[in-house]
């Protein structure tokens, strides 16, 4: 019975790795053309990640989201998750999600209710990669 928690944690880590790989290989919104109303580009000089996020808003709600840029798998996966989650959400909801993600990545005990974003929590073990996961969300915050 003592091996069970380790197996469960290992299964969860494997699922999260698969989620990041899937989003980085088949990113939602990547190089998609949208009628954007807001946009922002962020660059991480430490690793070279560059993300340009575009958002189409209507009455405070995201209608569509897209991104472009050159980045690592973690950054691309995070941008993809953002583009998948954003349509239909209000600006305030997305800003709250950004705050919760940043808090959860900074503090291992921090909760994160958004299922797709839980996959990014694996980068907590690699502090230099936290900025990779947050870069698209910083673009979101600055675009809004």
Descriptive overview:
It is a single chain. This protein has 144 residues and is an alpha+beta fold. The chain has a single domain (4-143), classed as Alpha-Beta Complex (Sufe protein. Chain: A), CATH 3.90.1010. 50% of the residues lie in helices and 17% in strands. A three-stranded antiparallel sheet has the order 1-2-3, covered by helices on one side. The N and C termini lie far apart (49 Å).
In brief:
Helix content is 50%, strand content 17%. It is an alpha+beta fold and 144 residues long. The model has no long low-confidence stretch (mean pLDDT 89).
Number of E-state strands: 3
Number of domains: 1
Sheet with most strands: strand arrangement: 1-2-3
Beta-sheet strand percentage?
Answer: 15-25%
Helix content: 40-55%
Shape: globular
Element-by-element helix/strand order: HEEEHHHH
Distance linking N and C termini = 49 Å
According to CATH, what is the class? Alpha Beta
Q: Write down the Rg.
A: 15 Å
Helix- and strand-based class? alpha+beta
Give a topology summary.
Layout: H1 4-25, E1 38-43, E2 50-58, E3 61-70, H2 73-85, H3 91-106, H4 115-118, H5 127-143
Antiparallel strand pairs: 1-2, 2-3
Helix pairs in contact: 1-2, 2-5, 3-5
Index terms:
Sufe protein. Chain: A, 3-stranded antiparallel β-sheet, 5 helices, globular
């Amino acid at each position: 019975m003592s091996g069970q928690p380790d197996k469960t944690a290992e299964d969860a880590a494997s699922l999260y790795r698969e989620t990041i790989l899937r989003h980085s290989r088949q990113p939602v919104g990547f190089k998609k053309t949208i009628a954007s109303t807001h946009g922002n580009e962020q660059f991480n000089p430490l690793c070279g990640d560059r993300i340009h996020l575009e958002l189409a808003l209507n009455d405070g709600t995201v209608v569509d989201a897209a991104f472009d840029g050159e980045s690592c798998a973690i950054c691309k996966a995070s941008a993809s998750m953002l583009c998948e989650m954003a349509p239909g959400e209000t600006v305030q909801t997305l800003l709250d999600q950004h705050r919760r993600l940043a808090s959860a990545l900074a503090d291992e005990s921090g909760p994160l209710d958004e299922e797709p974003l839980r996959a990014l929590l694996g980068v907590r073990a690699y502090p230099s990669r936290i900025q990779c996961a947050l870069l698209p969300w910083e673009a979101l915050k600055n675009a809004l």
